[in-house]
C-alpha cells in the first residue's frame, strides 16, 4: 500500500508534465524555402500552402503546371478558382464574410490580395479565329510592399470540382534590389544566432576536454560521454547555421539539411541517454545498470529514432501538408513519453539514496548525493518545461518579426542546462562521493531526519 502511495506521489509531477506537453499542439514555423507541392484530385474549398513574413520589399513567384479538373460539368468557371494572400488576422473576418453570405468565395473579399485567377489559363482571343486549347500552366510574379506575414492559399469555389496541379512557390524579401533573402522576416538572424551558439558550444567542449585532461584521476566514463554530447550539439548547430544560410541565399538547403538531420538525430539520442545515465548514477555511483534502468534506455532510444523521423517529415512537408499534423502528433507523443521516461531513473536514484542514508550510517555523503540528485531532478523538469511549453508559448505570443527571440530563449535554456549538468557533475578531486569527517556526519544525520519529514517528491 505504502509503495503504491509513494508511486502515485512520484508520478504527480510526471503527469502534470505530460498534460502540459500535450497542450502544445502546433508550433509556429517560419521556413520560407522554395516549396513544391502536388495537389491531387482535391475538392477542398481552401488549400493553404505556406507562410512568409515580408519586410518592406519582397516578392512572390508562383509556377503552376499540370492543371486538370475532374467531375466538372461543362465549362468550369475559372474565375472562381485562384491563389490569394491573406494575413492571419484577416482570415477570420474573411470566413465571417463567407458565413454571412456577403460573398460566396474568398477571392471576392477585399481583405485578401489575389495573386492570380485561373482564367489566365484561357488564351487571349486571337484574330485568326482558330481555337487554341486551354493552357495547363501559368506563371505569376508579384511585388509585395506590405510588411506583414502572409499565408499563400488556394481557393476552389466551384462545388465538387476536383483539381490536380503541381505548384512551385517562392516567397522572398529584397533587402537589396538584386539580392533575394528566402528566410522569412524574423528568421533572417538565425544563421548568425546558430553560428554564435556553435562557438559557445565549441569553447565549452574545449574547456571540458581540458578539465578531463587535467583531472584524469577523478574522471569517470560518463565524463567522456558528456564531452561527446557537447561536441555533437556543436556540430548540430554548425549544420543548422549552414542550412539556414543556404536557404536564405538560394531557397534550398543543398544537402546541409541532411547533415543537420544526422547530427540532430545523434544529439537527440545521446542527450536523452546522458540524462538517463546521470540519473541512474552510472559509472560514478555504480559501475552497472539495473534491469529497469536498462529498460528505460531501451525504450527511450527507439522512441528518439521515431521522434527524429517525425521531425524530418515535419520540416520537409511544410506546415499545411496533409501529413504534417499527423507527424506533429507522433512527434509530440513520443517527445512527451521520452521526457517523462528520463525522469524515472532520477526518482529511483533519489529513493535508493534515501534508503541507503538510513541504513549504512554514512549520512553526510548520502545527503550530499541526495541534494545533488534532487537539484538535477528539478533542473531536468524545468529544462523540459521551458524548452517545450515555454518556447512554444513565446513563439505564439510574439510577432512573426521577433521569431528569432523564441529560438534564442530555447537555446539559452539548453546552454544553461548543459552548463549546470557539467558543473554539478564535473570531475572534482573533492567530489561529494568521498568521505567526510564525523562532525559533518552528525549534522547530516540530523538533517536527513528533518528532511525525511519535510521532503515529498
Ligand atoms: C455583410 O452583411 C451584414 C449583414 O447582412 C452587414 O451588416 C455587413 O455590413 C455586410 N458586410 C459587407 C462587407 O458587405
Ligand atoms: C516589380 O518591381 C520591379 C522593380 O522594382 C519591376 O521591374 C517589376 O516590373 C515589378 N513587377 C511587377 C509585377 O509589378
Ligand atoms: C498592402 O499595401 C497596400 C498599399 O501599399 C494596401 O492598399 C493594401 O491594403 C495592403 N494589403 C494588405 C492585405 O494589408
Ligand atoms: C518559375 O519558372 C521560371 C521559368 O521557368 C523560373 O525562372 C523560376 O525560377 C520558377 N520559379 C519557381 C519558384 O520555381
Task: Identify the notable features of this structure and list them briefly.
Jelly Rolls, 5-stranded antiparallel sheet, elongated, 457 residues, 2 domains, alpha+beta, single chain, disordered C terminus, disordered N terminus, binds 2-acetamido-2-deoxy-beta-D-glucopyranose
How is the topology of this model organized?
Layout lengths: L1 H22 L11 E8 L3 E8 L4 E13 L10 E7 L3 H9 L13 E5 L20 E7 L4 E8 L5 E15 L2 E3 L8 H25 L6 H30 L5 H25 L10 H27 L4 H20 L1 H18 L2 H35 L5 H22 L13 H17 L3
Antiparallel strand pairs: 1-8, 2-7, 3-6, 3-8, 4-5, 4-7, 8-9
Helix pairs in contact: 1-7, 1-9, 3-4, 3-10, 4-5, 5-6, 5-8, 6-7, 8-9, 9-10, 9-11
The protein binds 2-acetamido-2-deoxy-beta-D-glucopyranose (4 copies).
The site of one 2-acetamido-2-deoxy-beta-D-glucopyranose has 3 residues, from β6.
Keywords: Membrane, Signal, Transmembrane, Transmembrane helix
Pfam families: CAND6-7_N, GOST_TM
GO cellular component, one term: Golgi apparatus
Amino acid at each position: 500500500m505504502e509503495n503504491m502511495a509513494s508511486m502515485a506521489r512520484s508520478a504527480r509531477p510526471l503527469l502534470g508534465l505530460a498534460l502540459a506537453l500535450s497542450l502544445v499542439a502546433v508550433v509556429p514555423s517560419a521556413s520560407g524555402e522554395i516549396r513544391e507541392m502536388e495537389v491531387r484530385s482535391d475538392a477542398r474549398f481552401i488549400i493553404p500552402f505556406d507562410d512568409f513574413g515580408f519586410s518592406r520589399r519582397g516578392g512572390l513567384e508562383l509556377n503552376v503546371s499540370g492543371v486538370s479538373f475532374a467531375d466538372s460539368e461543362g465549362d468550369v468557371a475559372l474565375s472562381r478558382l485562384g491563389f490569394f494572400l491573406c494575413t492571419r488576422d484577416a482570415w477570420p473576418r474573411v470566413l465571417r464574410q463567407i458565413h454571412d453570405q456577403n460573398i460566396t468565395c474568398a477571392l471576392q473579399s477585399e481583405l485578401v490580395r489575389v495573386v492570380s485567377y485561373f482564367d489566365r489559363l484561357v488564351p487571349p482571343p486571337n484574330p485568326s479565329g482558330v481555337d487554341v486549347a486551354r493552357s495547363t500552366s501559368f506563371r505569376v510574379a508579384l511585388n509585395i510592399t506590405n510588411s506583414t506575414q502572409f499565408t499563400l492559399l488556394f481557393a476552389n469555389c466551384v462545388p465538387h470540382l476536383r483539381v490536380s496541379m503541381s505548384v512551385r512557390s517562392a516567397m522572398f524579401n529584397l533587402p537589396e534590389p538584386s539580392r533575394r533573402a528566402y528566410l522569412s522576416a524574423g528568421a533572417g538572424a538565425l544563421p548568425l544566432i546558430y553560428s554564435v551558439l556553435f562557438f559557445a558550444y565549441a569553447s565549452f567542449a574545449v574547456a571540458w576536454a581540458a578539465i578531463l585532461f587535467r583531472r584524469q584521476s577523478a574522471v569517470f566514463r560518463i565524463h567522456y560521454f558528456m564531452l561527446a554530447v557537447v561536441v555533437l550539439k556543436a556540430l548540430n548547430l554548425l549544420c543548422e547555421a549552414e542550412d539556414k544560410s543556404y536557404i536564405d541565399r538560394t531557397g534550398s538547403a543543398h544537402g546541409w539539411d541532411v547533415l543537420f538531420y544526422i547530427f540532430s538525430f545523434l544529439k537527440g539520442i545521446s542527450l536523452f541517454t546522458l540524462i538517463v545515465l546521470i540519473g541512474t548514477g552510472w559509472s560514478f555511483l555504480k559501475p552497472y545498470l539495473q534491469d529497469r534502468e536498462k529498460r528505460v534506455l531501451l525504450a527511450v532510444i527507439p522512441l528518439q529514432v521515431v521522434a527524429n523521423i517525425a521531425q524530418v517529415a515535419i520540416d520537409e512537408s511544410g506546415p499545411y501538408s496533409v501529413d504534417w499534423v499527423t507527424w506533429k502528433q507522433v512527434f509530440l507523443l513520443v517527445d512527451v513519453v521520452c521526457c517523462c521516461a528520463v525522469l524515472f531513473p532520477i526518482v529511483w536514484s533519489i529513493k535508493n539514496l534515501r534508503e541507503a542514508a538510513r541504513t549504512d550510517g554514512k549520512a553526510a555523503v548520502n545527503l550530499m548525493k541526495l541534494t545533488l540528485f534532487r537539484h538535477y531532478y528539478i533542473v531536468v523538469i524545468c529544462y523540459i518545461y521551458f524548452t517545450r511549453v515555454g518556447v512554444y508559448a513565446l513563439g505564439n505570443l510574439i510577432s512573426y518579426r521577433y521569431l528569432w527571440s523564441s529560438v534564442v530563449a530555447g537555446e539559452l535554456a539548453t546552454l544553461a542546462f548543459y552548463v549546470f549538468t557539467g558543473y554539478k557533475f564535473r570531475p572534482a578531486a573533492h567530489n561529494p562521493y568521498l568521505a567526510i569527517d564525523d562532525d559533518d556526519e552528525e549534522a547530516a544525520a540530523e538533517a536527513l531526519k528533518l528532511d525525511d519529514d519535510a521532503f515529498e517528491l
